[in-house]
Amino acid sequence: MNNDSKTNIVDLSIFKQKEYYENLKKQCLLLKENQFSFGQDLISKLYPIIRNYPLEIQGEENIPKDTNVLFVANHSNSHDIFTAYEIFSLLQRRGSVMVAKDCLNLLTTQIFNISNATLLDRKIADSRKNSVLELSNKIIQGNDGLIFGEGTWNIHPTLPMHNIHNGAAKVSLISQVPIIPVVFEYIENDEIVTTENKLFKKCVIRFGKPIYTNYYEKLSMQSDLIKQKMKEIRTGIWRDYQIVKDNIYDIDPKMYVNHTFVKKFKALGFTYDSNLEKQFLLFLGNEERNNEYTINEKNILVPGITEKNIKMRKL
Questions:
Q1: Pairing relation of β-strands 118-120 and 200-207?
Q2: Beta strands 70-73 and 144-148, pairing class
Q3: What pTM, to 2 d.p., does this model score?
Q4: SS3 118
Q5: Are 171 and 70 in contact (CB under 8 A)?
Q6: Do residues 119 and 138 make contact, with C-beta atoms less than 8 angstroms apart?
Q7: How confident is the model at residue 1, as a pLDDT?
Q8: Are 25 and 176 spatial neighbours (Cβ–Cβ below 8 Å)?
Q9: Confidence check: pLDDT of 32 > 60
Q10: Quick one: fold of 9-240?
């Protein structure tokens, strides 16, 4: 069976689809594990000193204890990868986070490399394909996995979730483990800030119930189910913590732009290029193709990019 990237899985019979994923699993087993994992321990010890807010874990009972799992998380800022490794340690589990290295500096790349991260360059098709196999292999070998399913940060002022890429469902099918949807909700301070360490009050981590992938449904349909479950979790957190984001008029324009500026340009170890990152989001059909808002001349939030300039720094 031809397992190249041009294989149209949807057109295959159920038997052939199962054979396809079993063959991919065999390929995974041939990969060699050559990364260290002590970086996870390093992050779990050092990052609590660096972050300036507490973690609050909810829904831990939803994580099966008799199997490895694939966590699919939302993605909203530069803390997410560190949060993921902290969570692995707090749950006493070993894991690998899929990390896009094309937006990292050298130091953070090395930190994640020694943390058993699955590094990929999102701009290269073979790198994206190989990262699916590599993470599947690590799960098969006894780790948990974690993917940020949206592909890049969701910094939209009101949208709970962007669409989920099919890679998550594919890793689950190859490694034959359930998906655990998880939301990292960083509750922001209601004030203008100048540094990132003053941005968050706390981070709520809420795990949803397992999602079991199968060979009978299209990957796109299974990805949409993951999105819907994660949307329910996130809007549930908003409701529980009185975070009002029903429409754009609920958002304080200057507060949103200030916080977005700080996330993008005051984070250590990362670069965020709005125009570049937008291409990694999955937009379907006639959906609104926005991920970011800015302030127009009337001080109204409109779709647009917060630039790194003097005017924005003074907001």
A1: unpaired
A2: parallel
A3: 0.87
A4: strand
A5: yes
A6: no
A7: 40
A8: yes
A9: no
A10: Glycerol-3-phosphate (1)-acyltransferase (3.40.1130)
